[in-house]
Amino acid sequence: MNGLMLDGNAVAGLLQEIFAVEMTTAVGTCDGCGASEAVGAVHVYRGAGIVLRCPHCDNALVKIVTDDARVWIDFRGVRTLELDV
Q: Residue 8: which residues within 8 A CB-CB, separation 6 or more?
């Protein structure tokens, strides 16, 4: 990992605010390669927004952009997301 890339644990607080459940243990299936991983294991890149990428194929799983009042989330790269309730 380098200075611009972190693991999925870096967005734990943000995801918990949005989903109100523990998200790092949620398991997502990549729409690109079909691999399944916990959110805590994905690669996170920060820039103008946040991009979560598959650690197996580098597919963009989730894109998140926030401002002071709103959050935009694009889950286009996730085939399924399994949450514990």
A: 24, 38, 39, 40, 41, 42, 43, 44, 52
The rounded distance, in Å, linking the Cα atoms of 82 and 29 is 9
Residues 6+ apart with CB under 8 A from 5: 43, 44, 45
Residue 2 pLDDT grade (very low, low, confident, very high; cuts 50, 70, 90): low
Any bridge partners for residue 24, and if so which? none
- DSSP codes joined into one string, 41-58: GSEEEESSSEEEE-TTT-
Return all residues near 13 (Cβ < 8 A) that are at least 6 apart: none
Question: Phi then psi for 34, rounded to 5 degrees?
Answer: 85, 0
Regarding pTM above 0.90, the answer is no
CA distances, 54 to each of 39, 63, 85 (Å): 9, 12, 24
Q: Tokens 């994905």 appear where?
A: 42
